[in-house]
Amino acid sequence: MQAGREMMRKHFFLAPLWQGQVWLDKPPLPSLLYGFLGTVIPIEPEITTRILSLLISVIILLLAYIFYSRVIGNKNIALLSVVITAFIPAFLQRAQIVNVDIFLLLGWMGYVVFFNNFLLGLIFLTISVLSKSLLGFYPPLIFILFFSVRLYLKQISKDEYKKKIMSIILQMVIVSLWFVVMFVFYQNSFWKMHFVESHFKRVAASIESHFGKRTYYIDLLFNELGIFAYLSILGGGLIVYDFIRNKKIDKFFMSLFFVPWFLFLNLTKTKIDWYIYPILFQFAFLASYALIIFKKNRQLLLTLILIIIILYQNVEGNKLFNVRYSSVDENYKMAIYAKENCQKINYLVNSDTRKTYDTLNKMNLTITTTSWWGDNPRIVYYSNRPVNFIYMKDVFSRNMSQIRDECFVAYKQDIDDTINSGNYKVTKKFNDLLLLKLEK
């Protein structure tokens, strides 16, 4: 929300801003929308932004239902897919917090549902690309592959193929104008931060401590879906068997539309939990597809039984509402206090973060923006003050000896003999987090 708030304040809409700096890693759309809600609508931003996340998540579920209903012509399976997805922990979490991933998935699902409508397809492609950059191009690229396979199998004429491909390419070219504008304004800085660091380096290296074994995303999928992950294997097998038997390339491609993204994730070096979010409903659908082995009247009965079980497991004991995705900790309290008592904050990140940053830096596993966030970036938003995150104790000590009329924040264990605090004294404490100001 901080990035969007700065965009609105400075009327700058090309890219997110973070403490006055252009955040060249990311496209602007999610930050801009969250910032708009947080500054224009006279309701607490924590409420309006989360309502937006929830609303987008509901729309995604509706689009998923429409998509899979069309693909297999079976509303029972489509409904069960949506219900399973809605109660997957990662989906629930993303539906209740400020995040970028819901915009990507909204764009993806909208594009596949409205593919045959050039304008609507363009709108949803714009949403996905201006939310997650190159990742947003996934659906049109899969459609290009799909029509190329159909041409190879002589299931589509060359003229029809050319018409489809040119329409897709035109959409991609129009959306790509944002990249052109950004490159014109920021040139090599944009190339380095947006493409080299934020895309290529994330694929080739485990940057910023995002390590994990090769089966990281497979293990995560089973953890998120539980027994339905096993059923998805059965469902996937049934789809392959059906294709071998009937040679229906349309149904086969559309049923497995998002599986290539999951395969690609497993090849990347950077392992992050929320990267799996966009394909959760794909495996929920595969799990639901296992019902195809039953007759339609039994499918309906089994669908209702499974929905009741899912609802019971999540509502029983109030489990659904017991998970909290944010908390009032010492950093939040410090930010609120600093908002009224500081002009600027110099924040020494904790020892674990400093050690990790130093190690990653030596291993060349950091990017330009790694040092922007400290170990708790929300202090910037809630304090509404400039925050200088410091990663070296000697720099923190030197700043204290040279700077006047600014606040210094550090953990108690870091204020030792190596810190020359001078006339700075502790004026506020929240647990082990201390705020020091110049004694007057």
Task: Describe the structure concisely for a colleague.
By secondary structure, this protein is an alpha/beta fold. Helix content is 63%, strand content 7%.
Describe the structure.
Helix content is 63%, strand content 7%. α4 (75-86) crosses α15. With 440 residues, the chain is of the alpha/beta class. The mean pLDDT is 91. The strands form 2 sheets. It has a 5-stranded mixed β-sheet, with helices on both faces. Strands 1-2 form a two-stranded antiparallel ribbon. It is built from 21 helices and 7 strands. It has 2 domains: 43-322, no CATH class; 330-438.
Topology at a glance:
Layout: H1 2-10, E1 17-18, E2 21-22, H2 29-40, H3 45-72, H4 75-86, H5 89-94, H6 101-113, H7 118-132, H8 138-152, H9 158-175, H10 177-204, H11 216-225, H12 227-246, H13 249-255, H14 259-267, H15 280-289, H16 296-315, H17 319-322, H18 330-341, E3 345-348, H19 351-362, H20 378-383, E4 387-390, H21 393-402, E5 407-411, E6 424-430, E7 433-438
Parallel strand pairs: 3-4, 3-5
Antiparallel strand pairs: 1-2, 5-7, 6-7
Helix pairs in contact: 1-2, 2-3, 3-4, 3-6, 4-15, 4-16, 6-7, 7-9, 8-9, 11-12, 12-13, 12-15
What attributes does this structure have?
440 residues; 21 helices; 63% helix; membrane; glycosyltransferase; LipidA_mod_glycosyltrf_83; pentosyltransferase activity
